[in-house]
Amino acid sequence: PGVTYAQPGDHVVLSFVPTCGHCSYCVRGRQNLCEARYQLKGNMLDGTTRLRKGSQDIHHFNGLSTFAEYAVVPEDSLVKIREDAPLDRVALIGCGVPTGVGAVINTAKVRPGSSVVVIGAGGVGLNVIQGAVLAGAEAIIAVDIHGSKLEHALQFGATHLVNAATDDLMERVRDITRGEMADYAFEVIGSTDAINQALATTKRGGTTVVVGVAPTGAELTIDPDFLHLDRVLMGCTYGSCYPRADMPMLIDLYMARRLKLDELITATFKLDQINTAFEALDQGEVARSIIRY
Are 202 and 208 contacting, i.e. CB atoms less than 8 angstroms apart? Predict the structure, then answer.
C-alpha cells in the first residue's frame, strides 16, 4: 500500500542509499548523500523493522538485508531497470560498479587523455579502471601486491601494472608519465598509508580521490606540501552517483558491451554457502561473487 514507483513484476536493482527526493542534498543533485540513508540504523525509514525471528526483532542491514529469499526495503531504495538485462549480472550494479565507475566519472571527472593511478585492483578498483577507460584516460596504472589481481586488471583496461610488493611505485609512475606524475590517483584499499602513496603519485594540479573506507578511528596525517600547487584531495561516497539515473545508464553500457560485468564474477555460491562466500571475499580470492537463490 502506498507504493507508486514500482509495480509487481518490475525488474529492479536495490540501492543501499535511498533517495528521498526532497532533502537538501537530493534537491542539489547530491542524492548519494541523501539524509534518509544516514537515518538508517538497522531499521526502515519509518524507524520500524519488518523482520523477526519469533518475537525477536531482526534489523535491516543498510536498509536492505538481501541475503535471504525475500527482502523488505524502502520504496526509495528501488531502481527500475530494463527487463532484458540478466538479473544475475546486473545485481552487481547495486554497489561496487557505481562506486568505482562513479568515482572516475562523477567525483573526479577524469578528462580524456589523462593519466590515472588506481591503488587496489579488487572488485571496486577494477570498476575504477573501467571507469577510466570510459572517460578516455590514456595511461591507466593498476597497483596491487597480488600478481593475480594485476593480471585481472588488464582485462578491464589497465595499460600498466605495478606490483607494490616488488616495484618502486613512485619510480614506475614517473617513468610511465615521462617524469610528470599522474593527473589522477584513486585509493581503493581503505588504508591511510595508501592515501599518502596516492597523493605522492600525482602531479602539480593533480587530483587524489579516496574511495576505500579506512578502519573506524584511523587518522590521516599528510604532508601539507602535497596540497600546494593546486593538488586536490577528495572524498567519495557511492561514486557520487544518483542511483535512479546512473544505474540504468550503467546497465545500458553493459548491454552495449561497453561495461564489463561478466568478467567481475569470479565465484558463484548458494545461499547456504554465504559464510564461505564471506571467507573468500575476506581472503581476497574473488573480485565479485554471485549468490544464487
Answer: yes
Cell triple for residue 29? Answer: 543533485
CB 195 within 8 A of CB 176: no
| Cell matching residue 139 | 595511461
Q: Is residue 100 part of a domain?
A: yes
Going by C-alpha positions, the residue among 194, 19, 222 that lies closest to residue 121 is: 194
64 plus 154 within the same structural domain: no
For residue 269, give the 3-state DSSP assignment: strand
Domain tally, the chain: 2
Q: pTM value? A: 0.94
Q: Residue 210 belongs to what domain range? A: 96-240
Phi-psi region of 172 (alpha: psi -120 to 50; beta: other; left: phi over 0): alpha
Express each pLDDT in 112-139 by its tens digit.
Answer: 999 999 999 999 999 999 999 999 999 9
